[in-house]
Automatic annotation (TrEMBL):
The lineage of its organism: Bacteria, Pseudomonadati, Pseudomonadota, Gammaproteobacteria, Lysobacterales. The crystal structure with reduced Cu(1+) has also been determined. Keywords: Copper, Metal-binding, Signal. SUPFAM superfamilies: Cupredoxins. It comes from the Bacteria. Cu cation binds at H57, C108, H111, M116. Residues 26-122 form the Blue (type 1) copper domain. GO terms for molecular function: copper ion binding; electron transfer activity. Its cofactor is Cu(2+). This is Plastocyanin. Residues 1-21 form the signal peptide. InterPro entries: BlueCu_1, Cupredoxin, Plastocyanin.
């Protein structure tokens, strides 16, 4: 009975996955030419919000990244403008299934050469299909 209860708990937690998607905040610029934090882990379905703390910046996915975006005052192709900007912008991307188990490298187009880069390591939420109950 106790084992059943913990299995049920695990299933309920897994089923709640999509509703538990969280938003990760990455600060852009401010005191330095950096993303803070620069490397994060996220699940498919999570969102990542980039917030410009100051400076002339944007954020763009690296060539070949499993999720393509270019954002500042909104995102290109999504009603916004990803051109480098010193406005107090923020922009949110959603980690899609296409990026599952991948690493999404990103950079600021103005300061990539100065090391203003980062990455999002993506993992999948628990797959219910993988559970077996005896
Ligand atoms: Cu920059």
């Amino acid at each position: 009975m106790r084992k059943s209860t913990s299995l049920l708990t695990a299933i309920l937690l897994a089923a709640a996955g999509p509703a538990c998607a969280i938003d990760h905040t990455i600060h852009v610029g401010g005191a330095g030419l950096v993303f803070t934090p620069s490397n994060i882990e996220a699940l498919v379905g999570d969102t990542v919000t980039f917030v410009n703390d100051g400076g002339f910046h944007n954020v763009a996915s690296d060539a070949g990244a499993p999720l393509a975006f270019r954002c500042a005052n909104g995102c290109d192709g999504n009603g916004g403008n990803g051109d480098i900007s010193n406005a107090a912008w923020s922009a949110t991307i959603t980690i899609s299934q296409a990026a599952a188990h991948g690493s999404i490298g990103f950079h600021c187009e103005a300061h990539q050469a100065s090391g203003m880069v980062g990455s999002i390591s993506v993992t999948n939420p628990v797959d219910l299909q993988s559970f077996s109950i005896d």
